[in-house]
Write a structure and sequence with these properties.
The complex is a heterotrimer of chains A (118), B (621) and C (205). Chain A is mostly helical. Chain A is built from 4 helices and no strands. In chain A, helix 2 packs antiparallel against helix 3. The N and C termini of chain B lie close together (9 Å). Chain B has a single domain, classed as Cytochrome C Oxidase, Chain A (Up-down Bundle), CATH 1.20.210.10. Chain B is globular, with a radius of gyration of 25 Å. With 205 residues, chain C is an all-alpha fold. Chain C has one domain: Four Helix Bundle (Hemerythrin (Met), subunit A), CATH 1.20.120. Chain C is built from 8 helices and no strands. In chain C, helix 2 packs parallel to helix 8. The chains are: A mainly alpha (118), B mainly alpha (621), C mainly alpha (205). Chains in contact: A-B, A-C, B-C. Chains A and B meet through helix 1 and helix 4 of A and helix 9, helix 10 and helix 12 of B.
Chain lengths: 118, 621, 205
């Protein structure tokens, strides 16, 4: 941490323009939009599976996961306000994503192992 | 530099503008505290002070260490003289003094569990981390004192559940006996002690989760002014990486624990394949599970766990070596980089524990490659520590002896690991005593020696008194001789093909009989010798608390904040009278031109300068 | 209380952000905790994939075995509760604590609704003699939704605390209280997020 930053912190008492009432009102409207998108996504994902499409298993999994991923990103990006977050949080999450990927590699090892052995 | 000092520091950062103000504040708080009158319970039982919690962790972990060792003594007696009755075994199991096979299995499983999860990790992280980290970074406490307390109070019940399973269940099949790794399907169908083990583990995982969040936040957020990342003592870096390993590697084991608990309690078949035959009968369960899933999830934790055991030890050794060679650590930045890299790599080597599961050559090749790569950062750290010794005028005090012994002992442990990391040689050595010898060299004369080094080093900080030097040397030399007497023959046994986990040490097998019977009695005698070697330490520990030689705040002439900026030992509540400001790295020993051979991190300029300073390139631009 | 008990110095950055990280302690702490939760649920998802791909018998189809519509309603309930808790936080930032309190209560109610519907779903499964031991599909279904339910329950306990005993904090430490709602909100959104992945993987695939 530089001394410069500390001095700055002293002068400007924490409230950035982020917290102005207008901004918060704007955010609230955004949350409602996200809510509607999530509801729509949920209905879509159910419809894709139970509606008239009858996708084969592989495609159904792919579509469902894409929709879930989009919904998850909306929750993380807006509700958890990750879109507007500090660098440090990003670093923690990137680290986690790396280890999460390793974890997902785990079933792959099983499948690969079967091919490798026989 | 001059420009720097003129910067006004806000109230958010410095809590008192100068010493006088801090003193009056301190007096006011003291008066207030007299009014509050902290009860015995809030101060010593449910304490939220990181130092006291560290002491609680330390004492509890040392008790578990001794207990885990005691379990091993019983096993070693059986291995050395199979079938002979012994008084301690009779005392413990209330039988005729002869150890039964299922009792031997309990001892094995519980020795491993207790040593790893209840003794070493709590000692390395809970005790040393809690006590030293906030002091070394200049923080008033951990970031979340209540979580810190909760962490200890999850650890203790977890430990008590484990102990209870040993003492209460002897008539109901005994404690967990499927090894500390608890491989299914054996563990899925074992007696109820295994369920207790799982419950205990869930407590312990919760505890270390709370602890690791706390450590990371503390190290990132509470560093004092001037304590930049490249001025952090290596010990703090080691704890930092360790905390990330605990944070991210433990949850998969928690998941695995929940799945195994479901298998045992709710009758699911996560780890039970179809058509499993137990005692001649096909098991009536849904089947379709995969026992290897447990191994994957378990080693996903347990390999990083190895580095949880070793990194704090390296941190302690680095502090002590820098202090007692009176030299700067050689290659501080490489060491930090190596430990971060070590942390990363430790997550992608787990399947080298599973070469024998038939996972195929492509995967074996992948995991043996990553395993060879991970040996590099360990070698970097160890080499840096060795090179630090070069040309130093070494003070051979007790902490330094233990720290010095750590280097070759960990070296042996690490190098004997290489043949295990290569699939081809592992096929021969897997599940033999060679493996036991390998990881015990890493953890016992490695990590535990580093823990002893830390105890001798920081004891005067905690109590204000030194541990006795003569008893300490007796403790060191006898432990050093006996511990090698136990573990060195294991390499020979393993190469001769003696399998681990054998109740009689292998004498019933023709190929193993000779190697086993030639070495086992000697090794067991050494184990008893090692036990006796700890008596001077235990005596020293307790008598020195009361009668040890009184010392001042900085008996080792060290640089780091815990020695130079704190209130004098023994530390009560509260760490610093004023928040320390840090001006330099932690290892400015024997700088040319300075009057003393050490420069505390709080020193702005080298003191009285006798000769013209040949300054290195300026650190601050 | 804790800070004074510790002696002369308070722990810094419990309320305001540290300049170089831009974060107060609690926020970094909760994100680290969530990182570990990612690994916890990640391991379970990973186990699900491993067991499903390794299954020698055809894997049951979730929408035939389970009850999709109650679960869909539960999805709506959780999403709504996520909006509610963020409304509570927004209103605290707007300095309208009374409105915020209503939104917290609404979130808690959603928690009850979720658990109620979940219980109803479980009872339907039990009525069909579907138990964790039935097969590995139900085993993983009950384990994952059960663990998720425990997380919901944990969140509800925290919300109940903020409505009752913890509420008075806003009177003397307003910013700190606002931060607390932000933190529990982050946790609650994560619980929501896990459900967003659980719902299709268990019920629809």
């Amino acid at each position: 941490m530089s001394d410069h930053a500390i001095e700055q912190h002293d002068n400007q008492e924490h409230h950035d323009d982020h917290d102005s009432p207008e901004n918060i009102q704007k955010e609230i409207r955004k949350y409602l939009g996200v809510f509607l998108a999530l509801v729509a996504g949920t209905i879509l994902t159910v419809w894709v599976r139970l509606g008239p499409l009858h996708l084969p298993e592989g495609q159904a999994i792919l579509v469902a996961l894409i929709i879930a991923f989009v919904k998850g990103s909306l929750v993380a990006g807006f509700f958890m306000h990750l879109l507007n977050e500090k660098k440090l949080i990003y670093s923690v999450l990137i680290l986690t994503v790396f280890f999460f990927a390793v974890l997902m590699y785990l079933p792959v090892t099983e499948v690969l192992g079967k091919f490798g052995y026989h | 530099m001059a420009q720097k000092r003129q910067v006004r520091v806000g109230s958010q950062w410095m809590y008192a503008r100068d010493a006088e103000k801090a003193l009056s504040e301190a007096l006011r708080v003291m008066k207030e505290e007299e009014g509050h009158h902290e009860s015995f319970i809030t101060k010593y039982v449910f304490s939220q002070d990181h130092k006291w919690i560290g002491v609680q962790y330390g004492v509890t972990a040392l008790c578990f260490l001794l207990f885990g060792f005691f379990l091993m003594i019983m096993m070693r007696l059986q291995l050395g003289w199979p079938g002979e009755p012994f008084w301690v075994i009779k005392m413990f199991f209330h039988g005729d003094g002869k150890l039964l096979p299922e009792q031997y299995n309990q001892l094995g499983a519980m020795h491993g569990t207790i040593m790893v999860f209840l003794a070493i990790v709590p000692l390395a992280v809970g005790a040393f981390g809690n006590y030293v980290v906030p002091l070394q970074i200049g923080a008033p406490d951990m970031a979340f004192p209540k979580l810190n307390m909760a962490s200890y109070w999850c650890y203790l019940p977890g430990g008590l559940v484990m102990l209870a399973s040993m003492f209460l269940l002897q008539t109901k099949g005994g404690a967990a006996q499927s090894g500390w790794t608890s491989y299914p399907p054996l563990s899925d169908i074992a007696s109820q002690g295994q369920t207790w083990w799982l419950v205990g583990m869930i407590f312990l995982i919760t505890s270390s989760l709370l602890g690791s969040v706390n450590f990371i936040v503390t190290i990132i957020q509470l560093r004092a002014k001037g304590m930049t990342w490249d001025r952090l003592p290596f010990f703090v870096w080691a704890q930092f990486v360790t905390s990330f390993l605990l944070l991210l590697a433990f949850p998969p084991l928690e998941a695995a624990g929940v799945l195994q608990l479901m298998d045992r309690v709710a009758g699911t078949s996560f780890f039970l394949p179809s058509g499993l035959v137990v005692s001649g009968e096909v098991l009536k369960n849904a089947g379709g599970g995969n026992p290897l899933l447990w191994q994957h999830l378990f080693w996903f934790l347990a390999h990083p766990e190895v580095y949880v055991l070793i990194l704090p030890a390296m941190g302690i050794v680095a502090e002590i070596i820098a202090n007692n060679t009176r030299k700067s650590l050689w290659g501080y930045r490489s060491m930090v980089g190596a430990s971060i890299f070590l942390g990363f790599m430790s997550f992608i080597v787990w399947a080298h524990h599973m070469f024998m599961t038939g996972m195929g050559q492509a995967l074996s090749a992948f995991f043996q490659t990553t395993t060879m790569i991970i040996s590099i950062p360990s070698v970097i750290i160890l080499s840096a520590l060795f090179i630090t010794l070069w040309g130093g005028s070494i003070r051979f005090n007790v902490p330094m002896l233990f720290a010095l012994a750590f280097l070759p002992m960990f070296g042996i442990g690490g190098l004997t690991g290489l043949p295990l990391g290569l699939a081809t040689t592992d096929i021969h050595l897997h599940d033999t005593y060679y493996v036991i010898g390998h990881f015990h060299y890493v953890v016992a004369p490695g990590t535990i020696f580093a823990m002893f080094a830390g105890i001798y080093y920081w004891f005067p900080k905690v109590t204000g008194r030194m541990l006795n030097e003569k008893l300490g040397k007796l403790h060191f030399w006898s432990s050093f001789v006996f511990i090698n007497g136990i573990f060195m023959p294991m390499f020979y046994q393993g190469l001769a093909g003696v399998s681990r986990r054998l109740y009689d040490g292998g004498i019933q097998y023709a190929h193993a009989k000779e190697a086993a019977s030639a070495t086992n009695p000697f090794m067991s005698a050494c184990a008893v010798g090692l036990f006796l070697s700890q008596l001077p330490f235990i005596y020293n520990f307790f008598t020195s608390i009361k009668w040890g030689e009184r010392v001042g705040a900085n008996p080792w002439q060290a640089n780091t904040l815990e020695w130079v900026a704190t209130t004098s030992p023994p530390l009560g509540h509260g760490n610093f009278t004023t928040v320390p400001v840090v001006y330099r790295g932690p290892y400015d020993y024997s700088l040319p031109g300075s009057a003393d051979d050490y420069l505390p991190q709080t020193t702005p300029e080298p003191g009285t300068v006798a000769a013209p300073v040949i300054a290195p390139a300026p650190v601050v631009a | 209380m804790s800070a004074e008990a510790h002696g002369h110095m308070e722990i810094p950055f419990t309320v305001h952000a540290r300049p170089d990280t831009g974060l107060y302690n609690g926020k970094l702490g909760v994100w680290l905790f969530l990182a570990s939760e990612v690994m916890l649920f990640g391991a379970l998802f990973s186990s699900l994939i491993l067991i499903r791909t390794g299954s020698t018998t055809p894997w049951p189809e979730g929408w035939k075995e389970l009850h999709v519509y109650p679960a869909m309603i539960n999805t709506f309930v959780l999403i709504a509760s996520s909006v509610f808790v963020i409304m509570a936080w927004a209103n605290l930032r707007l300095r309208k604590p009374k409105v915020a309190r209503m939104w917290i209560a609404a979130t808690l109610l959603c928690g009850f609704a979720f658990m109620g519907i979940k219980g109803y779903e479980y009872s339907l499964s039990f009525a069909h003699h579907h138990f964790p031991k039935t097969n590995n599909f139900f085993a993983i279904y009950f384990t994952m939704t059960g663990l998720h339910g425990l997380h919901v329950l944990g969140g509800m306990v925290v919300f109940a605390y903020f409505l009752t005993k913890g509420w008075s904090m806003h009177e003397h430490e307003y910013q700190r209280f606002t931060n607390r709602i932000e933190i529990v909100g982050l946790y609650w959104h994560f619980v929501d997020l896990v459900w967003i992945f659980l719902f299709p993987t268990l019920y629809l695939l």
